[in-house]
Amino acid sequence: TEKCFHSFRGCSKNAGSWFGISTVLIIIALTILTTATAKCKERQTNYWKSVTILAEEAILCLFGIGFVVSAFFQIRKLKFSIATRQSRVEEFLLYTAFFFSSNYTISNIILAADFEEEDRNAKSLLHTERYLLICRCVLNALELIQILIQTHMIQDSFHRCSDKVKHQITKPGRQSIVALLGINLAFWIQQSFQLKNADILFLMENDKGTYGWILFVVTMPISLFYRYHCTVCLSQCFNKLYEDE
How far apart are CA 232 and CA 245, in angstroms? Predict the structure, then answer.
């Protein structure tokens, strides 16, 4: 019984690592599946790709919000220091990437809502496309919430350190940080390779496709940088949070 208890305790300590690794591997597999499958001439046959990517985003956003909230409340147990534990460059890059990522997400919501309203008024939109566009708007709003609270959590962790031996041993919030590392990396993989082949905004035929193309070409790279930079910041917090100043 004691051996089982220690085994369970060891697994719980690595739960965040297993979750992050599993998430990234699943997203890689789904990305290969959607990108390797050729687009059919009939749009309806490609909708399964949009459903897949929307389901991925829904799960990633919900888990992302949950782990951010969990990490935030656990990290608040650590000592707050006015002096930042990260370089000013890292903090500046985080805010810059956050600004462009928020603009990209909000613009995405506006574009999807505009497509849905225009085609609904023209009565030329299939019900499936309407539902997919509505889901796209809702999930982008959910992602915006995740981005907001995650940026605040990372910024707060820049000023935290462990002055107690107990915190240096237990490392509160570390497993949530590891899980967020996997979630942000999964988002980066999905948006880099899967979005253009599976998202409903790319599958639709619309005279505003040029605006969508400009949106993705101009603002999307910085949005991708936000996910990448978050993985960098979180990986630094993985160790620095549990050191004394």
Answer: 20
**CA dist., res. 140 & res. 124, Å (int):** 24
**If we measure between CA atoms, which residue out of 182, 173, 184 comes closest to residue 237?**
173
Cα–Cα distance, 183 to 128 (Å, whole number): 28
Contact between 37 and 49 under an 8 Å Cβ cutoff? The reply is yes
**Of residues 9, 60, 66, 14, the one with CA closest to residue 182:** 60
Print burial letters for 114-145: b (CB count within 10 Å at least 16), e (below 16). Answer: ebbeebeeeeebeeebebbbebbbbbbebbbe
| Residue pair 49/34 in contact by the 8 Å Cβ criterion | yes
CA-based nearest residue to 39, from 189, 198, 191: 198
CA 207 to chain centre: 30
CB count, 10 Å around CB of 228? 14
Give the separation between CA 57 and CA 209, rounded to whole angstroms: 22
Amino acid, res. 210:
T
Q: Kindly report the length of the chain.
A: 245
Please report, in tens digits, the pLDDT of each residue of the chain (245 residues total).
544 444 444 555 678 789 989 999 999 999 999 888 776 666 666 788 888 999 999 999 999 999 999 999 999 888 887 766 667 788 888 999 999 899 889 888 888 888 777 766 665 556 778 888 889 999 999 999 999 999 999 998 888 888 888 888 888 889 999 999 999 999 999 988 888 788 877 777 655 555 666 666 677 787 889 999 999 999 988 888 888 77
